[in-house]
UniProtKB/TrEMBL annotation:
SUPFAM superfamilies: lambda repressor-like DNA-binding domains, Periplasmic binding protein-like I. This is HTH lacI-type domain-containing protein. It comes from Erythrobacter longus. Gene3D superfamilies: 3.40.50.2300, lambda repressor-like DNA-binding domains (1.10.260.40). The keyword Calcium does not apply. Keywords: DNA-binding, Transcription, Transcription regulation.
Length: 327
């Protein structure tokens, strides 16, 4: 419980985290109010959502699912936005929701991975449902897909098409899904006894702009890959754009695949082969879990309460094809 340890001047809290929490506490005059939280758990409960994901497509689908669930459960959704990758902004948004006495909270990535934010809601007794945290945290429900397995399945799709030189654009290092997708890619390449040159894995930030830079690095290599697996659709769409500008035919010269099945997958030509991540369904399921939690008495938090994994699969479209070069 990071906030409690900071307020009570206990040890075991990193200096930079302590400073950010104290700054937010001072700015917002934070005081936990558990009795008010109990009163907030009525039939028309207010559920808070903190959003910091840079992808507009992800935001739209997430809000769609959360709002539909709110309507079904006679609830209200209160949305807080904050600066991406700013722990101080995350903490400030969390404290504002605590001060607003929301009955429960819904946390999508990347903020779902913030221990500092979860500790604030734990201290105030506010139920939390996270999306894609990939944790057995006993204080939060979690809804996720099998990112690692889905990435392995997509990698196998490219291998089955005859690709042996496959480049990978990974996501932000601070998001658990980024590592899981990279692990799935690496694992399936290893299973196929295929080498991954160090310069075949490049950094991205789940944004179109970062995808442009990453794809340029891969395509401009002396021996470029015959396929690029981008760990989200925005970056994959960017890779297709770079390929077109380099005079490459997709998928004749270069196959490109993504992950999410977002609007970006249908906004490029050829349309994108991708992993179908049902973001709306994940948001809806997480909302219903936290809504159920606020309607019942607090449970023993010694037992993990992770929610069920949501199924996903591949959507095969025109951006992936047989490799014309296999060596």
């Amino acid at each position: 419980m990071t906030v409690s340890r900071v307020i009570n001047q206990e040890s075991g809290v990193r200096t930079d985290t302590r400073e950010k929490v104290l700054e937010a506490v001072e700015t917002l005059n934070y005081r936990p109010n558990k009795s008010a939280r109990t009163l907030a758990r009525g039939a028309d409960a207010h559920i808070g959502l903190i959003y910091a994901n840079p992808s507009d497509s992800y935001l739209g689908r997430f809000l769609h699912g959360a709002l539909e669930a709110a309507q079904r459960t006679d609830s209200h959704l209160i949305v807080e936005t904050c600066d991406n990758k700013s722990t101080a902004s995350y903490v400030a948004s969390a404290m504002r929701l605590v001060r607003a006495n929301v009955a429960g909270v819904l946390l999508p990535p990347p903020i779902s991975g913030s221990d500092a934010v979860l500790s604030i809601f734990e201290e105030s007794g506010t139920p939390v449902a996270t999306v894609s945290r990939f944790s057995q945290d006993p204080n939060a429900l979690d809804i996720s897909i099998d990112d690692k397995g889905a990435a392995a399945q997509m990698t196998r799709h490219l291998i089955d098409l005859g690709h042996r030189r496959i480049g990978f654009i990974r996501g932000p290092a601070d998001q658990a899904s980024s590592k899981l997708r990279e692990d799935g890619f690496r694992g399936e390449m290893q299973n196929a006894a295929l080498d991954i040159p160090p310069d075949y894995i490049v950094d991205g930030q789940f944004t179109y702009r970062s995808g442009v830079s990453a794809a340029e690095q891969l395509i401009d290599l002396e021996v470029p890959p015959t396929a690029i697996f981008a760990s989200n659709d925005d970056m994959a769409a960017a890779a297709i754009g770079v390929a077109h500008r380099r005079g490459l035919v997709v998928p004749g010269d270069l196959s490109v695949v993504g992950f999410d099945n977002s609007a970006s997958a249908l906004s490029v030509w050829p349309e994108l082969t991708t992993v179908d991540q049902p973001v709306s369904a994940m948001a809806s399921a997480a909302f219903e879990l936290v809504r159920e939690a606020v309607s019942t008495e607090p449970q023993n938090t010694d037992t993990p309460r992770a929610g069920p994994a949501i199924e996903c699969g591949l959507i095969i479209r025109g951006s992936s094809g047989a490799a014309t070069q296999t060596t």
